[in-house]
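QA checklist item 7 of 12: single-chain prediction sanity check.
[x] sequence parsed
[x] length recorded as 223
[x] structure emitted
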Amino acid sequence: MVALSFNLVSCGDDDDNGGETGKSTKRLTKIVTTSGNEEYATIQFTYSGDKVSSIKIKTDSDDELIVSEKEITSTSTNSTYELGSNGYIVDDGSDEYTYYSEGYLKSIGSDKFIYDANWNLITTDWADHISYTEIPNKDNLFLVLDDDPIGDDNYVILAQAGFVGKASPFLPQTVTWDGDNETYTFKYEIDNDGHINKVTVVYTYENGDTDSWTQVYTYEEVK
């Protein structure tokens, strides 16, 4: 279940366009994912001006995602993500991406995304129910997007840079599926500016057994 880390981001409070930063004085530069005190995934973000220009992924198989005005290309797989006029991914070569007019992800192929009145994602094709904390999602992080909240697909990583629209305005607390018999629980360490320092994800299996992993975030000051 635990693969590669997903949480990238430009750190704006009102981030509408892919890869752009907002009013924050910090932006994310690195995420390190560990399990059992073993580091197994590192993601590093490079910026050109106020936009993400490349994402280096270091895990069992290394990759780099190169961002241009109209597309994002993987150097290891040669896969390409087409960008629309708003900077969001609209096609990944297999599936089309659609969005609500408010900027939130509506569908990826046949997968649908359902929100509450405040645009918190509450149901997907794999998640029965998603609950939320009262912690604002200052960095537009997609902590819940597919069946692995750490994510092993490039599109999950790209979502954290704002390339898949707006994320839920609050940070998730739990995700349940399989008839509410299995659960992800999220625990956070937040810095004084409201940015995430660390996320711990606890996975509770149907039989009560648990597994867990963490992500540590590094930022740089934006002048």
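[x] summary fact logged: The CA atoms of residues 181 and 206 lie 5 Å apart.
[ ] second reviewer sign-off
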